[in-house]
Design a protein that fits this description.
The complex is a heterotrimer. Chain B is an all-alpha fold. In chain B, 74% of the residues lie in helices and 1% in strands. Chain B is built from 14 helices and two strands. Chain C is mostly helical. Chain C folds into two domains: 2-63; 72-283, MetI-like fold (Orthogonal Bundle). Chain C is built from 13 helices and no strands. Classes of the chains: A alpha+beta, B mainly alpha, C mainly alpha. Chains B and C meet through helix 1, helix 2, helix 4, helix 5 and helix 6 of B and helix 1, helix 4, helix 5, helix 6 and helix 7 of C.
Chain lengths: 360, 301, 285
């Protein structure tokens, strides 16, 4: 049983004013694959390194399996880490790389080799055991890095953007293998990535960070359908949600261009109580449609992807030009310059002037 | 934001554990180099002559004021400046030339590099003696033999131009050192930048002036800094080539002469040596700008 | 055919290129000539070596025999070479043993004031040895170290340490910090990190640094002259003894010189590539 808990954990680098990680509270269940995602500088890698013991935890605590490891050095935390650049020991063979930690623990050679071979089998590394890292491809090196972590049978796996250095196709393929492996091994895993698609496909739950502050932690489905604030709404989902600023004042209803913005009853009620101000309407491209009804606009760009197309339409909103992205199914006959109408396909999200979600 | 006390304590402990590996080397160097240095400072404040033996008395800064007024000291300083400047300048210049020539790929480039490297490996005293007796010699030296073949009169290098003879040998020995550093600099240029410049139509000379030279700037400055530190201290060559003729007496040699090399005026000599240290510190602080520039690119791990 | 990006290749003109290569060879030869001439002179008789330059001669090993013979009142070649080797090897070893952890503490797990410490190490070279000889001599005399090998071993170690620390540090900087972090997580102790991870990576740098220490120590003259006047003489002092006012000496001096510079020249030639890397890296960073 290896749960991980961050409790008001902070990290502030000496000489800076703003904390890199600001009062992080996060509970990770045993066997869960939790993804930490966010833009550069969001603190996700720092949070991971705090868990690893590679960064000081200036305030707050970190627990692994109920034990307070805040002041423990990395080697005492029973964790294993996969680095973005793999950090394979160049002077050692694959087998020696994978067995290094066991050697440090004093485990005799025969036993070491047994465990190394077992891990190598799981990862299809057996033919490479005697090679040195420089004679391996990127994908092979990545697997060795994984193997090195697996061999330790740790309580927690920590992964710092382990797939970022692979080419796109290999990345997608390895992603599924990795998720599958984690499910089979059942080891609690904390996984850092900047790629939100990766986060959504792999994580049991995803924690979104920005500027060191946890924005929201939920399952991918909830993050997608109920983003807690403007940032999460704009960050999660590809292509990104359309975020439109709307001035709400008294009698003028909520409109996008000429169109009334549909809201769910709870959101509408909440809007009534909050009153006027600069709100943000959020609507994903897949929740808009191009047709004969709606607010008019001119097509500026059409991105054809085969299975779907994304049409960028320039409409007039609050007397200013505004670009909206709309998803169209399959191939489309719409072309640049066409005059079209954009309509909603369902209720929109609404965010208050302070960025928080309005409604539930 | 306040950091928890436990963490602060751990950090302090960790900082101490980092210092430990450094200590043996640091302590050793401090012991061996600073004790003589402090003793020198102490001696420099005394009047202490040994021949004829007189009691050592405390004189304060008198040795220093004497030094500034002493024309021999000033001459030695001037010789040091000339010798160091020309030796560094010429060896960097020739080193650059050789580095450029050796940056090419041709058959035997490694062999030629080995040949050019050799002067740096030769013992300075040997180099001086060999040049004095076999190269520069007025009657039978190789240079005069060669110029004699061209019909020129023999020239007494060491007697007529002692300082330049010394500088010549210094340049011969230090050019390889500069060449190695500058060669590394040339080879560390990014080929993509050079190729982009070619595609943009730049001439060879243009590329050299606007891309290569700026890239080499750090390396050149480093050559100059290291060269100066070592060349200010030249001693072996002066002894070997000229035996200490006055126009070749630099500050280290002058200090030597004043103390155990015949003068036996230890107080004075110590003051001179402290002055040399001060001058070198000034130069090095000036060059510290360079050092800082080089070190600045790195953060502590 | 891709055009060369070498600076000195003026066009792909084959003739120009050949000319450049020839000039380079010529310059290389000119640089090397004094050394070559010195070696040749060692194989001549004194008559041949001391007069007008002689280019064709019957090589003889007489001079080499003469200089390596034992002469009463003068240290023998055998003694001197052994002294030099022992002094230089021991001081280089000690310097490396001290410098490796120090470099570690200035790069991979640096102390906070590492820049100042580095500058301090370099600053110890600001006092010319010649100027500091007096206190050194007095202290050496106090500790009865004059005319022993230890006086020079200690001094050479101190003289080479700044260089060794400086260079090793820059090599250590090349080790990616992630490797050290991975090793820490794998439970490696500090010593284990150093021996299993760092040293294998910086091994060529270690060799280059050791070689440079060897060169500077072997070629040192002044301290050896002052501190070891009678016993424990080194090769550098021994060779100057062949300069003579009374008789022709060039052939003997050349033979002695050849013997004395041989170890360093051979070492430098063999380890040339490493030394280039060493000087360049140690110097630049």
């Amino acid at each position: 049983m290896a749960e991980v808990k961050f409790d008001e954990a902070c990290r502030i680098y000496p000489g800076t004013d703003e904390p890199a990680v600001d009062r992080l509270n996060l509970d990770i269940g045993d066997g869960e694959l939790l993804v930490l995602v966010g833009p550069s500088g969001s603190g996700k890698s720092t949070a991971l390194r705090m868990l690893a013991g590679l960064e000081w935890i200036d305030r707050g605590s970190v627990y692994i399996n109920g034990k307070d490891v805040t002041l423990s050095p990395p080697q005492d935390r029973d964790i294993a880490m996969v680095f973005q650049n793999y950090a394979l020991y160049p002077s050692m063979t694959v087998a020696q790389n994978m067995g290094f930690a066991l050697k440090q623990q004093g485990i005799p050679k025969a036993e070491r080799m047994k465990q190394v071979r077992e891990a190598a089998r799981i990862l299809d590394l057996e033919p490479f055991l005697d090679r040195k890292p420089k004679n391996l491809s990127g994908g092979q090196r990545q697997r060795v890095a994984m193997g090195r972590a697996i061999v330790r049978s740790p309580q927690v796996f920590l992964m710092d953007e382990p797939l970022s250095n692979l080419d796109a196709k290999l990345r997608v393929q390895t992603r599924t293998e990795l998720a599958d492996l984690q499910a089979r091994l059942g080891v609690t895993t904390v996984y850092v990535t900047h790629d939100q698609v990766e986060a959504l496909t792999m994580g049991h739950r995803v924690a979104v960070l920005n500027f060191g502050v946890l924005q929201q932690v939920d399952t991918p489905a909830i993050l997608y359908s109920r983003p807690k604030n403007r940032f999460v709404a704009g960050f999660i989902g590809s292509p990104a949600m359309n975020l439109i600023d709307v001035d709400v004042s008294g009698d003028r209803g909520l409109k996008l261009g000429d169109l009334d913005v549909p809201l769910s009853p709870e959101v509408a009620a909440a809007l009534e109580t909050s009153g006027p101000g600069k709100y943000t309407v959020g609507v994903r491209p897949e929740h808009l449609q191009i047709g004969t009804e709606g607010t008019p606009g001119e097509v500026s760009v059409v991105e054809e992807l085969g299975s779907e197309s994304f049409v960028h339409v320039a409409i007039t909103h609050q007397r200013e030009p505004l670009n909206i992205e709309v998803r169209a199914e399959g191939e489309t006959t719409i072309q640049r310059g066409d005059n079209v109408h954009v309509a909603f396909r369902g209720p929109a999200h609404l965010f208050a002037p302070d960025g928080e979600r309005v409604g539930d | 934001m306040a950091r928890s006390d436990a963490v602060k304590k751990m950090e302090k402990r960790e900082a101490w554990s980092r210092r430990i590996p450094l200590l043996p080397a640091l302590v050793f160097v401090i012991l061996i180099t600073q004790i003589p240095f402090i003793l020198s400072i102490f001696y420099s404040l005394t009047e202490w002559t040994v021949n004829p033996p007189r009691p050592r008395t405390f004189e304060g800064f008198e040795n220093y004021t004497f030094a500034f007024g002493d024309r021999f000291f000033r001459e030695a300083a001037w010789v040091t400046a000339k010798m160091t400047f020309w030796a560094v300048f010429l060896s960097v210049l020739f080193g650059l030339g050789m580095a450029i020539l050796l940056d090419r790929k041709f058959r035997g480039v490694g062999f030629v590099r080995t040949l050019v490297l050799t002067p740096f490996l030769v013992m300075p005293v040997v180099a001086s003696l060999v040049w004095k007796t076999q190269m520069f010699d007025a009657s039978f030296g190789m240079i005069n033999w060669f110029t004699g073949q061209l019909g020129l009169e023999p020239f007494e290098f060491v007697s007529k131009q002692p300082l330049w003879s010394v500088i010549g040998v210094l340049v011969w020995q230090w050019t390889p050192f500069m060449m190695l550093i500058l060669l590394a600099g040339l080879q560390s240029q990014s080929t993509s930048v050079l190729e982009a410049a070619r595609v943009d139509g730049a001439t060879k000379w243009g590329i050299f002036r606007q891309i290569t030279l700026p890239h080499l700037r750090n390396y050149i400055e480093l050559c100059a800094l290291l060269g100066t530190i070592y060349l200010i201290q030249v001693f072996d060559h002066i002894v070997g080539l000229t035996g200490g003729v006055s126009s070749t007496i630099n500050l280290p040699f002058f200090v030597f002469r004043t103390s155990i090399g015949g003068g036996w005026r230890f107080g004075e000599a110590s003051a001179y040596s402290i002055l040399v240290v001060i001058v070198t510190i000034i130069f090095a602080t000036f060059g510290l700008r360079v050092l800082s520039g080089l070190l600045e690119g790195e953060d502590a791990a | 055919m891709s055009e060369s990006t070498d600076v000195a290749d003026f066009g792909s003109n084959r003739f120009v290129r050949a000319l450049l290569s020839a000039s380079t060879y010529l310059l290389g030869f000119i640089f090397f000539f004094p050394v070559l001439w010195m070696v040749l002179n060692g194989f001549k008789t004194e008559d041949q070596a001391n007069g007008t330059p002689v280019f064709f001669f019957q090589p003889t090993l007489d001079q080499f025999r003469l200089v390596t013979e034992s002469i009463p009142g003068r240290s023998s070649f055998g003694e001197v070479i052994i002294n030099s080797f022992v002094i230089v090897l021991v001081s280089t070893m000690i310097a490396m043993i001290l410098a490796v952890p120090a470099a570690f503490a200035l790069s991979i797990r640096p102390v906070t004031k590492w820049r100042d410490v580095l500058f301090f190490f370099i600053s110890t070279k600001f006092l010319p040895v010649v100027a500091g000889i007096l206190p050194v001599y007095i202290i050496a005399r106090e500790f009865e170290l004059l005319n022993t090998r230890w006086s020079l071993i200690i001094m050479y170690t101190a003289l080479n340490l700044p260089l060794a620390v400086w260079m090793l540090r820059s090599f250590f900087q090349e080790v990616p910090s992630e490797l050290i972090e991975a090793a820490r997580i794998d439970g490696a102790s500090l010593r284990s990190q150093l021996t299993s991870i760092v040293l294998p990576i910086v091994a060529p740098g270690l060799a280059a640094t050791g070689l440079l220490c060897f060169i500077f120590a072997w070629n040192e003259f002044f301290l050896s002259l002052q501190l070891n006047t009678s016993d424990a003489q080194t090769a550098s002092v021994w060779v100057t003894g062949f300069e003579s006012q009374r008789e022709d000496f060039i052939a003997k001096l050349s033979a002695a010189s050849t013997l004395v510079v041989l170890p360093v020249v051979v070492a430098g030639w063999v380890a040339q590539k490493r030394m280039i890397r060493g000087l360049a890296m140690g110097a630049i960073k």
